[in-house]
Amino acid sequence: MADGRAAPEPGCKILQPRRLSSCLVKAIRRLHVRTVLPQTLAPLHDLALNLRWSWHPPTRDLFESIDPELWAATGKDPIAVLSALRSSDMDRLAADQSFVAEVKDAAVDLERYLSKPRWYQENGAGRVDDDGETLDAIAYFSPEFGITAVLPQYSGGLGILAGDHLKAASDQGIPIVGVGLFYKSGYFAQRFNADGWQQESYPVLDPDDLPLSLLREEDGTPVVIRLTMPRGAHLDALVWRAQVGRVPLLLLDSDIETNDPVRREVTNRLYGGGGDQRLEQEMLLGIGGVRALRAYSRITGAPKPSVYHTNEGHAGFQGVERISELVDGEAGLDFDQALQAVRAATVFTTHTPVPAGIDRFDVQAIASHFGEPCALPGVSLDQLLALGAEGYPGGDHRIFNMAVMGMRLGQRVNGVSQLHGAVSREMFKGLWPGFDLDEVPIGSITNGVHAGTWVDRRLYDLAKEHLGNDVAARSVFTRIHEVPIDAFWATKRELREQLITDTRARLKASMVARGSTEAELGWTDSVLDPDTLTIGFARRGATYKRLTLMLQDPERLKKLLTDPERPVQIIIAGKSHPADDTGKALIQDMVRFGDDPEVRGKIIYLPNYDIAMAQQLYPGCDVWLNNPLRPFEACGTSGMKAALNGALNLSILDGWWDEWYDGQNGWAIPTADGVEDPERRDQLEASALYELLENTVVPTYYDRDESGLPQRWLDMVSHTLSTLGPKVLADRMVRDYTEQYYWPAAHAAWAVTHADFAGAKDLAAFVGQVHENWPHVHIDHVEASGLSDAPQIGDEVTVHAYVTLGDLDPSAVKVQMALGRANAEDTLTDVDFVDLGHDESFEEGSRHRFEGTIKLKRTGALGWTVRVLPRHEYMSADAELGLVTLP
Length: 887
Prior knowledge:
Blueprint: H1 43-49, H2 57-66, H3 68-73, H4 78-84, H5 87-95, H6 97-115, H7 119-122, E1 138-141, E2 145-146, E3 152-153, H8 157-172, E4 176-181, E5 189-192, E6 198-201, E7 213-214, E8 224-228, E9 234-244, E10 247-253, H9 261-264, H10 276-300, E11 307-311, H11 317-328, H12 335-344, E12 346-349, E13 360-362, H13 363-370, H14 381-388, E14 399-401, H15 402-409, E15 412-415, H16 418-427, E16 443-444, H17 451-454, H18 457-467, H19 473-478, H20 485-513, E17 533-538, H21 554-562, E18 568-573, H22 581-595, E19 603-606, H23 611-620, E20 623-626, H24 638-644, E21 648-652, H25 655-660, E22 666-669, H26 678-702, H27 711-727, H28 730-773, E23 778-785, E24 796-804, E25 813-822, E26 828-841, E27 847-855, E28 862-870
Parallel strand pairs: 1-4, 1-11, 4-10, 11-12, 12-15, 15-16, 17-18, 17-20, 18-19, 20-21, 21-22
Antiparallel strand pairs: 2-3, 5-6, 7-9, 8-9, 9-10, 13-14, 23-24, 24-27, 25-26, 25-28, 26-27
């Protein structure tokens, strides 16, 4: 068949089907028969394929109205609903003029959404440069994307963040195109056995049953991306396209008959396998992803991206492929020149503050995949290995580090919260030796969440009822005080009831999977209470997330759960990686605790956490608990989603909570920073958690006024929604990326590529010259004038620095005076830098004098020094080259 799958043999007879009841009958071949809709219903196809329906309630209502029972049975999947329609169903719907009109209106609304100018178009349309270039396309690479539960291509926070990034970009009109992989078995489906141990299964996904279309050439044949593999082999991939509102998402799929059996499995499982399979996944994502982008632009006429954003290090090879293009293609650059052109256009986001979370490959594996005859044109093995080398104190020369390569290939690097940015600067400071941590060129864009996906519809309906149908999403939060508080509290109770109904059904199914019979499970129909304080906790089973911190004192927890007057109920979810037995053991401890008859039904661990479950859990909780080991939480967006649904956070000051907790929007669990014994630290922080619950959280929830309302609690919720609401939105996040990273990267890329890459050539020559000469750069002598014996504020000090530069021109360096507070060891803090101007060159030509004047503006013990740095107009930061000379 045209999509690469086997076609029936010519001349086969068509047999009349005969229904058999036996489940032992197995298909020897599969085919996919698509629904052919009547002309009047044809827009339903496009409405189903565009994943905007996943955050657009009117479109979901339209599909639900076709057959509410079918809608529920298919998991609220428009493609599955259409596939299940019979001819009689379509005739019925086509004859329903009211339904036909609704379909037409929905199609018009989608077209309006896709074409109407939005924030990006209204704010400069890509910031035109002097030569008329505009930023018309941004490539966004991620190993996983969490868009909707019906397209399970995600494992956790990284994928959910990537999905929210695409959806918010679509809403804001930002011209992003996503690039990822299609995993035939997704991540995994989780269940528990009788003993509470996590069990994994891998349901097979058929892309023909999903909201995907195959990227095809003009003649209808599927696009096939090919990578050269060791020992004369190859890795081929099809390219599936999902449409996320205005944003196309390209997913590469190795399940194609032209691959050998091993390589057909490369994209079988997300984060599955190891060794070569994981490396080849990342090669396909990065190298294959760039080639897929080129095919997509060639076929559709879409503009070629000007900026490339890699969401974590998995896609780092995209930069290597782009270097190869520039060396081997018409540009004809050498490696160093191509490297500068690629760096200027690349944004790299690191997501983990845990070194173990970084992909690191054995150098020999890299050599076998990138050495001859597999080498990318124009990129030697040594050049590639240098990009990922851990060539810093504590690094391992036998390892190729994907995050390090990402930072060397990206001129702009960021963490995902302010605290995570600081942690990342500490983690990777070895790449920029000689610089203080605050100068390490890693910034921060704090993550956000997509309100249209995560805020329950009942809350939007409540807002529209009191604020008007045209209220904007952002205004819902800033105007929440205009909604009657009793109406909000009543809606919050409905959300608790909704969660409880969903939890009971999931709990019963889980107990059946663990071996219980229906007859034993009548108790599941009455677990949980919509009037009880409900706490949610849903995290990966990683040890630093500390799932079992609440079990440090089981009797104290039981007392909270069983209090007859002020009880607490807790709903927990989360998966552990299949290879992480330590994480699985933590989950088992929690499941077993919930099995205790004393607390059964009051603390529940639900299996198979996914988007569908989360969309019930966040709105139904009153408190969102997060107790990671600080500072190992990069951001932690689940608490943002809960907050947008009127929950209060109870969290360690880590990730986003560290910067936005204000004392009124929830509670901060005190941390025992500096306690080196991990068991003692857990005990101390667990005790602090219990005390907060017992003495503050629970009393505040149950303290009611004469109307039965928890006024203090609701004041905190209102404050949370109005102050946190605008901050935690993914709309804010993608605007920050656009203004602080995408637009600057585009301008940097244009600057080095104009005039036949003149800027890239100049910058590459400069970098080479600087590295060659830097061993000869030193500060010979420093003089100061104007200092009295008792300097005072307002005094001026003139500094003269005599510097040897070797063959470097004075314009190639920046000489600075650093003035700051000096401690007993003469270490400077709170430093101000003042550039010194070139004043004189001496006869020998390599020695120069620089001078400058500074006015004293601070009192106390001060100190100063001088340093020399490389300087070039196309560098984005003083520390970019990792070179600095001090006295």
